[in-house]
Write a structure and sequence with these properties.
alpha+beta, BirA Bifunctional Protein, domain 2, Herpes Virus-1, Rossmann fold, five-stranded mixed sheet, 40% helix, globular
Length: 503
């Protein structure tokens, strides 16, 4: 992302067909977005990559697609109906509403920025001799900052776990947190806000039954545990993966597509023998971090954030955080959920949700290790990590340096000028390559403008057909990242692009 802020990223996404505000001609709908022609290609590529690496590359994981509408008892069993709330607070001067935990997390991020500033100054002062690790662990100022962050995080987690609203109010007062709009600390008391979206099912409203749009996809996996286990004949340990929509009535959905009311999750629930869950938790924790780092973004942009205080159903939990423009924020969660969910559904449904283990000749309720990744957040992290502004010899170009396998289009076919002869040849090449790669054909504007347009949407390679191409059957291949150009025979295009894309 370099020096680009969130406003520039949003502007770029709209201008180049990645993300649009939903219902924009009617002044939009808050915290709901549509994916444009380039955005949906990138989004689908991310889905396919996750599905391939999670399901196809693992013999012990299968997939499902559960319904958005589920029996209301499911949400009673999971605890969502009674306890799926967020704490909210209003500023009396600005009349703006905020999530209390978000306000406190943003305060923590300000402290982290101070830490980074101090470290950067020290690195500049000491030069090549600077020992970052030693400085962080011995400098009193840095140690005090880190202790303060840990103290705030611990207190926040305990307050949220206990649903202690008065403690949360006391925290924002003690930390002297101010409203970003009014600049004052004139806050109301903290209240609870239910995140469930309710709806009706039935032809006649008087006779209809209350339902909820699912707030998470995990419960669809849990209630299908036995169906999947029996039909797939999987033995424990094994996992069930799913990609699907979820809905939350957020208090304040902000920061572009980072937090929305309608979003997609990519989740995997891994069922294990009781007692083996921590081993598998550590396995998936490390494996998921490796997965993110393979996307060719800077490894320093990812960190683990271990939960100091755990939810009542978990015995271990952490987040993989990415350095978004607004600071490090959760990207993916890894949780050891114990047997809580299956036990609850067993209790409410009155049906056994157990696995018979032939090795020990005994039935038991499995423990669960969860990996949960927000697809929209992943999309935003890829955009942030790939968007660059670079100075060239003549101007500044904006370029999306996507990993080639994720790029919306792998190849762009460009006739040098708009003449019938060149267009016919270019379209023939386009038609042939389309069978193998996702391709774009572009003949509008000068060749320089078209190169810049393809850079801005992240197309790794451009193929230019000129008048000499008709004579010598050669084309020019341009590389997005280096802007270097190479002349190759038409019959070598396919293999050459393949070798570059899948290296």
């Amino acid at each position: 992302m370099d020096n680009l802020d969130l406003k520039k990223i949003i502007s770029h996404c709209k201008e180049y067909g990645f993300v649009f505000s939903s219902s924009e001609i009617y002044d939009g709908l808050s915290a709901v977005y549509d994916y444009g022609p380039n955005g949906i290609e990138l989004k689908n590529n991310l889905k396919q990559y996750w599905w391939k690496t999670m399901v196809h590359d693992n013999d012990d994981i299968v997939g499902i697609d559960s319904s958005i509408f589920m029996h209301p008892k499911i949400w009673h069993a999971s605890g969502h109906t009674e306890a799926f709330n967020d704490p909210l607070v209003d500023n009396k001067d600005s009349k703006k509403r905020y999530r209390v935990d978000t306000l406190i997390e943003e305060h923590i991020e300000k402290i982290r920025k101070k830490v980074k500033k101090d470290i950067d100054k020290a690195e500049k002062r000491f030069g090549p001799d600077f020992d970052r690790k030693k400085y962080i662990t011995t400098n009193p100022r840095i140690i005090n900052y880190e202790n303060l962050i840990n103290k705030i995080n611990s207190k926040l987690s305990k307050s949220l776990e206990r649903n202690d609203l008065s403690s949360l109010k006391k925290m924002i007062d003690e930390l002297e947190i101010k409203c970003p709009v009014s600049g004052t600390s004139n806050w109301t008391e903290v209240r609870q806000f239910n995140l469930m979206f309710s709806t009706k099912i039935g032809a006649i409203s008087e006779d209809s039954n209350n339902l909820y749009l699912r707030p998470e996809t995990a419960q669809g996996i849990f209630v299908n545990f036995l169906n999947v286990q029996k039909t797939s004949r999987k033995k424990i340990p094994f996992g069930i993966a799913q990609i699907g929509k979820a809905f939350r009535n957020e208090i304040v959905a902000r920061q572009f597509i980072f937090r929305m009311r309608e979003f997609e999750q990519m989740e995997m629930q891994f069922f294990v023998k009781p007692g083996d869950e921590i081993q598998w938790y550590n396995h998936w924790k490390n494996k998921r971090m490796e997965w993110h780092q393979k996307l060719n973004l800077k490894k320093s942009e990812y960190i683990f954030h271990d939960h100091l205080n755990l939810a009542h159903y978990a015995n271990a939990a952490c987040d993989i955080q990415f350095n978004f423009p607004m600071g490090f924020r959760e990207l993916e969660g890894i949780h050891s959920r114990t047997d809580f969910d299956l036990i609850q559904h067993q209790k409410f449904s009155k049906k056994k949700l157990q696995y018979f283990d032939p090795k020990i000749d005994k039935s038991y309720v499995p423990f669960v290790v969860e990996t949960s990744l927000g697809l929209d957040r992943l999309f935003l992290s890829i955009i942030c990590g790939s968007l660059y502004e670079e100075k060239t010899d003549s101007d500044t170009r904006t370029v999306m340096k996507f990993p080639p396998f994720l790029a919306p289009f792998k190849v762009a076919i460009l006739p040098l000028v708009k003449t019938d002869e060149l267009i016919v040849n270019a379209k023939k090449i386009h038609k042939d390559l389309q069978k193998i790669f996702s391709c774009q054909y572009d003949e509008k504007d000068s060749i320089g403008k078209r190169y810049r347009r393809q850079d801005a949407i992240g197309t790794p390679y451009c193929i230019t057909i000129d008048h000499n191409s008709i004579k010598d059957n050669m084309v020019t291949v341009r590389d997005r990242d280096t802007m270097s150009q190479e002349r190759i025979p038409v019959e070598q295009i396919c293999e050459r692009i393949k070798s570059k894309l899948y290296t």
